[in-house]
Amino acid sequence: MSSENGTEGGGAEGASPEQLALIRESVRQAKTPRAKPRTWRGAKLAERLPVARVLVDKGVLHLDRYFDYAVPEELDADAQPGVRVRVRFGAGRHRVRDGRREGGGLIDGFLVERVAESDYSGPLAALAQVVSPERVLSEELLGLARAVADRYAGGLADVLQLAVPPRSARAEQRPSPEPLPPPSKPEAGSWGRYERGAGFLDALASGGAPRAVWNALPGPAWSEELARAVVATLASGRGALVVLPDGRAVARVDAALTSLMGEGRHAVLTADAGPEKRYREWLAVRRGSVRAVVGTRAAMFAPVQDLGLVALWDDGDDSHSEQHAPQPHAREVLLLRAAQDKCGFLLGSWSCTVEAAQLVESGWARPLVAAREQVRGAAPLVRTVGDGDLARDEAARAARLPTLAWQAVREGLRTGPVLVQVPRRGYVPRMACANCRAPARCRHCSGPLEAQGSGADLKCGWCGRDEGAWHCPECGGFRLRAQVVGARRTAEELGRAFPAVPVRTSGREHVLDTVPGTPALVVSTPGAEPVAEGGYAAALLLDGWAMLGRPDLRAGEDALRRWIAAASLVRPQGAGGTVVVVAEPTLRPVQALVRWDPVGHAVRELGERAELGFPPVSRMAAVSGPGEAVAEFLRTAELPRDAEVLGPVPVAVTAVGRPRRVGGPPPGEQWDRALIRVPPGSGAALAAALKAAQAARMARGATEVAVRVRIDPPDIG
DNA sequence: AGCACGCCGACT
DNA sequence: GTCGGCGTGCTC
């Protein structure tokens, strides 16, 4: 008997679907409204568990519902829970005409469960096809996908699209390699530098499930430390998963794992591997051939068997936010996984997000930190140059760069490479008073003024109004300077000032992985900094104004994270490592950098967020769309009693020619956005209410204009 | 989204 | 009696 049977319409189609259709036909003609045929006379169905519950992959229309289908006898063997299937789905009765079935197209789905009876009071259609007998959707993965869908008020089918890669028949046909026996428990290595580091590894190796927020010491040891945690988990006979922000970080942990335990015990899941290779690796994990996974954010769903540890590096990096609906964040997905699988959890970073601090504050995770003298021994010396220094510094105004910075660069270049961190290009140049450096703001809405093209035209980044005659409200000055452009030019000038030294650049389109330990100027945008052999001798951080000037809740935390990430590549103070940050020394993130205290900074931020009712202490959702649609949505949604609606207010029109933000309005269209806030503990109720309201809208039909619902919106003023 | 069902008015 | 317009609701 062939499972290929019935793949095409026409005469080749198996007999039972035809018969089923005929039965439906006769049921209808007998005018029996909704017969309840529990038995199928004539149709050859599977003897045991003849009903398949199927998750139909058709958008958000019928969120999270299963549909029951009859299992024809010839598909019985292959139609196991977790396989991909194709079914007829569509309105109305499937007529039989000229021997062909009509109505309802073939669509994809997952077979979730086999049961004895359906509780659907109507005639069941048959499964059209089992796409392949590979059981891709395990019970655990389904449970995780459902939890993620609930957390983010999204559809189960949407989450499964993120969690299960597209099929490649060739990849499926290849047998996965034989699993290797577990490695032996690794030495603690540089984990010994942390107060509870060795204990954490011991707990993993002995089958425990420790949960930690790890503030990593600056320097390159983090990737090997992550790898040791993975090997310790494997040694206990369980699997491990590490999610990293980009391909370079994946390559480092990959290399560390290979050097600790050789090839064949871990898989690498990244987007740039190509669909077939990626699916092949994914299958090796799903089949249990490989028990450890490192990868970028899509790997957060990797179906590792018997999971003992989930780990995430640098959760503040925004590449951990999924771009596709419902836009889950890797940290939140791994939190759900740790809770569901009762496994270990490790959240590591040189810096510390407010969310990470909250995990410690709530007692859910324990801090994994080094003693103060370890930090002092590993971190570089940090010095600041603020507005006051600049004003007093005659040479700086002429040369556009403070004397202190010149000195640090000159000194550093004597012994090694010097890193210059400049703002990312594509940051719209924001303007400040050339005299007093106060940010130039719109006189109507206080939004940031931005330069338009090459000319002197100014436009507000929020309300879009033109500003023709700006003058500084602080000092009366009327000259402006573009901070971002200034930083780039400064980097160029540095290159000219040290003509004997090579200049390398690393940025968006051309990212360097490493640079040699010889004297060089390395100009890089945040996140693209190459690792220097032996560490940088010095770093110059020039983008303080651009980062801290953003009207964003995370501006301070983000600036600190990027500074710390760059400064972590610099040699320790004892080896002469120096960092100069051009930013106001009274600002809290700047002070946290000088004291090298990212955890303290995050804890203070967390306290303020709690007071102000901001995330992550409260949970927020954003509802956006055309004004009338948003208003209607808010009228009909049955929000939790303790929910508070802020707005709606008009969102800034996306300026024509600027890249459209994911989930934002089309250029030129006016949208409204409301924020909905609930106190701690009501997040699940809020998500459920928003999901129900969305589903109700969809059911009402196509006349309704879509609104976008986003849990944990990233940009709240 | 499709697509069939059904209620109601117009025409043979 | 029967055809067909479009509004409503379902899809196993």
UniProtKB/TrEMBL annotation:
Biased composition (Pro residues): 176-185
Annotated positions binding Zn(2+) 2: 442, 445, 460, 463
Entry note: cofactor: Binds 2 zinc ions per subunit.
Binding of Zn(2+) 1, residues: 433, 436, 472, 475
Cofactor field: Zn(2+)
Keywords: ATP-binding, DNA replication, DNA-binding, Metal-binding, Nucleotide-binding, Primosome, Zinc
Span list, region Disordered: 1-39, 166-191
Residue spans crossing the bilayer: none
Residue intervals of the Primosomal protein N' 3' DNA-binding domain: 54-165
InterPro entries: P-loop_NTPase (IPR027417), PriA (IPR005259), PriA_3primeBD (IPR041222), PriA_3primeBD_sf (IPR042115)
Protein family: Belongs to the helicase family. PriA subfamily.
Function: Initiates the restart of stalled replication forks, which reloads the replicative helicase on sites other than the origin of replication. Recognizes and binds to abandoned replication forks and remodels them to uncover a helicase loading site. Promotes assembly of the primosome at these replication forks.
Subunit note: Component of the replication restart primosome.
Record NCBIfam families: PRK14873.1-2
HAMAP family in the cross-refs: PriA
PANTHER family for this protein: PRIMOSOMAL PROTEIN N
Name the UniProt record assigns to this protein: Probable replication restart protein PriA
Organism: Streptomyces osmaniensis
Name of the gene this protein is made from: priA
